[in-house]
Amino acid sequence: MTTSEPSPPTLSLTRLFLKFLRFGCLAFGGPVAQIAMVRHALVEEERWISPARFNRLLAVMQILPGPEAHELCVHLGMVARGRIGGLLAGLGFMLPGFFLMLLAAWLYEGWIVGLPGAASIFFGIQVVVLAIILRAVHRIGSHILEDLLLWIIAAASFAATLAGVSFWIPLLAGGLVYAISERRTIAVLIALAAVALGFVIPAANPFQPVTSGGAGGTVTALALFAAGLKGGMLTFGGAYTAIPYVRADTVGRGWLSDGSFLDGVALAGVLPAPLVIFATFAGYVAGGWAGAIAITAGMFLPAFAFSMIFFERLEAVIENPALHGLLAGVAAAVVGVIAATLVQLGWSTVARASSILLPVLLFVAALILVWRLKGKFVLPALVIAGGIAGWLLGL
């Protein structure tokens, strides 16, 4: 005896938007908590789709670039009301965090930064965020680096990024090498070609300190949109993987400092939103209201596009073994890029510290806590505790 696949109830577009707007207002705790909330409401309680179909869908979203919780909302909105439903569901889920981050960035720029003790508070937060990112690198790597070759690709990408090699070289080489790893001669030739490109193309200085905006030319909405689009297209394995690309196109151009960038990442971990909403903060600090809107549009465009354009073919496309190998190699290279970016951010933080001992002790304490504690409010609590510790210690 077979059972038919459940289907969503008939909803007006307004009710659909409000349902996902509610999810957006409650989206604390990162993607795991957000996905669990959507699953409980739409799969277990309202039975929009079966649990088996939800699990297959989630597996597809985790392979694709983009914040998976947001992509799930877009896809489920399409299941209910077609592509316009997907658009409204995605907007409903992201808009609360977007407006809250805009408010936070406005307060940060116009009021908070100049307050007495604010520098110490935010420095403590930045140290804690470094520990959170290190834990994220470990978590992402444990899921992606499944064999020796993937570890080698990640290590090579790490070294290349620290050497200032353009981001697309290790990503392209890693994907191609792993996709054709059975043809060892060709794979070796691709790796050697990538090394040669790294020498030919001028390298950047990844450890050059950035302390003020405007050093990298005029800030434009188009440039910030491109920065967000790059981050959205390369978000493999979690939102933390967007950090190096947004940082390269904002901090790397001198449009904001590493300290401000880390403050944005910290605020994103506190708000009810996909973590990639930190891009809104970076866009606002670099280019005001227009910059915030432009970089956010670029960041979320892939999450909308993959579901809305490939709705009928997503699962079939991802089941292609060759594509799976290519994506696995790219994802391994991204792990190396984000690990290198963590080193660069740590270097920048150390360079701004008046002393080393207290920040190191705070980092170690935060790392132990983020490794041991679980729960949707652990990261916001650690961020707040980092600010308090920075203020009390006078960092």
Give the % helix. Answer: over 70%
The secondary structure category is mainly alpha
Mean pLDDT: 81
Number of domains: 2
Largest sheet: none
Strands, count: 0
Shape: globular
Topology pattern, helix = H, strand = E: HHHHHHHHHHHHHHHH
Separate helix tally: 16
**For the CA atoms, what is the radius of gyration?**
21 Å
- Catalogue the unreliable spans: 209-215
Q: Strand portion, in percent? A: under 5%
Distance between the termini: 67 Å
Structural write-up:
The protein is mainly alpha-helical. The protein has 2 domains: 13-91, no CATH class; 95-393, no CATH class. Helix content is 74%, strand content 0%. It has helices at residues 13-25, 30-45, 51-63, 68-112, 118-144, 148-162, 168-179, 184-200, 221-233, 243-250, 258-270, 278-309, 314-318, 321-352, 357-372, 378-393. The longest helix is centred in the first third of the chain and has 45 residues, at 68-112. The chain is globular and about 65 Å long. The N and C termini lie far apart (67 Å).
Which SSEs are present, and which pair or pack?
Elements: H1 13-25, H2 30-45, H3 51-63, H4 68-112, H5 118-144, H6 148-162, H7 168-179, H8 184-200, H9 221-233, H10 243-250, H11 258-270, H12 278-309, H13 314-318, H14 321-352, H15 357-372, H16 378-393
Can you tag this structure with a few keywords?
395 residues, mainly alpha, 2 domains, 0% strand
Give the gist of this structure.
The protein has 395 residues and is an all-alpha fold. Helices cover 74% and strands 0% of the residues.
